[in-house]
């Protein structure tokens, strides 16, 4: 045993002795310029649909921002100085554009501060509320949307650790705020002397949980979680400044008023906490308060829930919400199968309702054959669209139901969750009194917006569908020569609306148009941030796998490409799972979109003379219970089919093909190098490579390691590291908090390849999580990718 320990120590010293940092790299100057170009702003439509809020932001702050200290507590990353979630996006300016009046109003921000997030419209659209980061917290500010003038709500520091820190009341004069309790004192210091060991015990109970990260680890963490998570609800009047406390300081996880604002639905976290699951699975209660903050009824009282079956739900009430168009009626769901989707039952869920004053026995409303997925409330009270999900078939069924006669169900939508061609899309909503949102309707006709997926690509549409008959009428559709999307109705009624239009050569901008007008009134004038890329050619390509599954992807060719030139190719992909060949082969995407290159987008390879196949489909088709039995065969076959097709067109040199992916795409990439010789090199970012470290499932795998040991071992690239004989660049954030993709996954794969004499490079990005955000990190990733591809994918006959 002592020799084994000595080997481990020596191996660790050898491994780390070669780890080094020579500073951040930068790709060519033209690429740096594109990365540093500010993005177009976020857009938020006003409640009255007569204005839009434009929020400028920086998605890629400097590494100094990412390096600010943060705490990992209960699955949350907390900035202790701000008592807020870790900041990874910087917001800079806010503008209100009254598009029906052609008037722009810049919002005056407090000097020396930045907005903490996207502001929130008041119900009447006259004000917006936003947080402003200062040195020791987050202040609450309100701005007049007509003048842009802002004022601070005195004496309040927001607490946004567990939930959104504020929300508007219906009168648009008051906000309910979650504030840091006054006089709470300094944060608890690390004790240093534990009161005892950390102990967990189990006896016969199954707890098949994911491998969560950033969890509580000890008593010190528990005290810090309580300190930073505790907030005091306060009603704040923005006109008078009056403040009224509701309840007492606690760990509030959610808080919503009833439509009549006479009651408050409140969820609270309480001890005991857990070291195995995030805070939303801690012991908790859900209570009904009256308007004074007095608890009048406890609806949910749950212990730590770390025994939920895989892909299952908690037992007892879940999904509590207020029913639209009632003063105060609760609706919720309870599992009839113990929360276990594998249990065979006639009915899986039961829906209940309970009216104020909440003293009666809850009313059993309706049973669902499959898992209840939610209601969409129509403009007529008690009539709703109810959706249930069949896990076995991956199938959604939506019924039109009258809750006064719930035994009669009329099927409205019935299709595979992967059937994009027939998907009606998403319903649109109108806001009515009481902060209720109901389907946007004209009589029995409801409005829907859809991606418009088709064999020729996506052409977004605005449709209306008859709720009674299912008849559909298309009201507006994106022209074939551009890519236009419906954004929102404009003004009262449903005649005018806003679209976002772009094309291969036209930068996305917003336009005001309508059902009965042909003219489009341009609302924004964003310009091309990288005109040197205008010549990029983009094509939707379609081809077939040998087993008959149709495949597709977006082929991008660099500016100035000459027909007949054979280019090095880089393939970027992410495997998706399907139950049948038909939906697996559906085309998704468009070749009419404007090419924005942002962050560490692999399409940046176009600037280096590569052809790029983006979003190449790698479908894994089969029974949801066993489809991973053939993961490797299907992934290898899909990748080869893409190479074969593009080679047949004379566009690529098949000996100079690289492949890459992020997360599950990285897992795919390592497998492709281990089980095929179709690639010259690979680039794997933030992946998981040893599936025994995710023993209770991964992606949509439903079996545990102990139920399918051969599969877990076979699909793990780590197991086959000795077969990875093509160069692999492995990149990972050093602070990855995504379940399953621990940074250790990349470190161990690198060690395995090195130990077997393979070629690999491991890049660990300081302070980065599952995705990379610091500008220095993004530029470094691009530089590493370019260098790796040039070294192993541009020479003659480079493929092993």
Structure description:
- Mean pLDDT is 92; it is low at 1-18.
- This protein has an eight-stranded mixed β-sheet, with helices on both faces. Strands 8, 9, 10, 11 and 12 form a five-stranded antiparallel β-sheet that branches. Strands 29, 32, 33, 34 and 35 form a five-stranded antiparallel β-sheet that branches.
- The protein starts with a helix and ends in a 7-residue tail after the last helix.
- The protein is mainly beta and 800 residues long.
- A hairpin with a 4-residue loop joins strand 4 and strand 5 (84-85).
**In terms of per-residue confidence, which ranges show pLDDT below 50 for 5 or more consecutive residues?**
1-18
> How would you classify the helix and strand content by structural class?
mainly beta
Radius of gyration: 28 Å
The average pLDDT is: 92
Helix content: 10-25%
Q: Strand order, biggest sheet? A: 40-41-44-42-46-47-48-49
> Sheet bearing the most strands, described?
8 strands, mixed
* Structure summary, number of beta strands: 49
Spatial separation of the terminal alpha carbons: 40 Å
Distinct helical segment count: 10
What is the approximate shape? Answer: globular
Beta content: 35-45%
